Amino acid sequence: MKILGIETSCDETAVAVVEDGTKIISNLVASQVDIHARYGGIVPEVASRQHLLTIIPIIGQAIAEAKIRVEELSAIAITIGPGLAGSLLVGVNVAKAVALAWNLPLLGINHLEGHIYANWLMGAEPPTFPAICLIVSGGHTDLILMEDHGKYSLLGRSRDDAAGEAFDKVARILELGYPGGPAIEQVALLRHAPVYHLPRAWLKGSDDFSFSGLKTAVLHLITEKGGVQQQSDGEIASLAGDFQEAVIDVLVTKTIAVATRCQVKQILLAGGVAANRLLGETMLSRSPILVRFPPPSLCTDNAAMIAACGYFHLQADKVNGWDLDVIPNLKLG
Ligand code: KG4
Ligand code: ZN
């Protein structure tokens, strides 16, 4: 069963064809990163206009690359939130038009649920339940207990900055460019050993996270030292590396604690920050429980994960009508 997935929640116009929720037939991502990089972050109106320009050609290209006829498709899966309202609206309206024209069912997908389903696209054995999912993206840091397909309980979340947001803001403080996660990861490779023990907000007794204090600590340090321009490359690498290590220490420690308490079979990582190599390696080395995470290209925003998630919605008869609307602040669990 082949499903066409469409993802336009933020600054990536993505379209994919996935078979049986597990096999990628085609997977295209048109990134706007170069356009937004000059502003140091995403400009919502620029993002929705760019989606408008790109979406129709990329749908045609995804079908052409999949070498299928549209008659072979079983449904259209589309992200309805969370995300930027204007960007989501472009995707949802195009998905409706395509579903109507091709007489296909429409599946509205939560972007965060989609991120989790990237773990079904790895060709190996599918994940087993119950699992703890750590979703770490630009807008979310959520710890979710997944007991079955579609059965989620939110156990913890960030009370302030999301993990990816903290990476982006600290990269901006250190003048490393946008997006911040990959920039910090790259620069941190030049660090030899930890220098600063930056604060970790453990929020004892809670499964929540907090990263704004850590971000402020980096800002104070750099200000005390006379600003970014006064620092050597080695100093910037130390700050970036120590920041990255502090974020990962908290994410890994709290995720393993929750997974152990809930006696789950697996830990699933998802979202853009899960593309960070040190996060994956640290989780693998410290966890007594099996850890899975997708390759970097399936951690960051893509439409294959939306199509994969759509397959399981279709199996559960979760089909939406033409009144499907965007929900920019949609939650999971
Ligand atoms: O899931 P995603 O692509 O989009 C959202 O749904 O937000 O996540 C984007 C976030 C950005 O904050 C970006 O800086 C971060 O993921 N990110 C990373 C890495 N690659 C992307 N953070 C740390 N290390 C990375 N390698
Ligand atoms: Zn995302």
Fold and architecture overview:
With 333 residues, the chain is of the alpha/beta class. It has 2 domains: 2-119 and 298-315, Nucleotidyltransferase, domain 5, CATH 3.30.420; 129-293, Nucleotidyltransferase, domain 5 (2-Layer Sandwich). It has helices spanning 33-37, 44-66, 85-102, 111-117, 163-173, 180-188, 212-224, 233-261, 277-286, 296-299, 304-315; strands spanning 2-7, 12-19, 23-31, 73-81, 106-110, 131-136, 141-148, 151-157, 266-270, 290-292. Strands 3-2-1-4-5 form a 5-stranded mixed sheet, sandwiched between helices. It has a 5-stranded mixed sheet with strand order 8-7-6-9-10, sandwiched between helices. Helix 5 (163-173) runs antiparallel to helix 8. The longest helix has 29 residues, at 233-261. It is globular and about 60 Å long. It starts with a strand and ends in an 18-residue tail after the last helix. The mean pLDDT is 97. The structure holds 5'-O-[(R)-(carboxyoxy)(hydroxy)phosphoryl]adenosine (KG4) and zinc ion. 5'-O-[(R)-(carboxyoxy)(hydroxy)phosphoryl]adenosine binds next to helix 5 and helix 6.
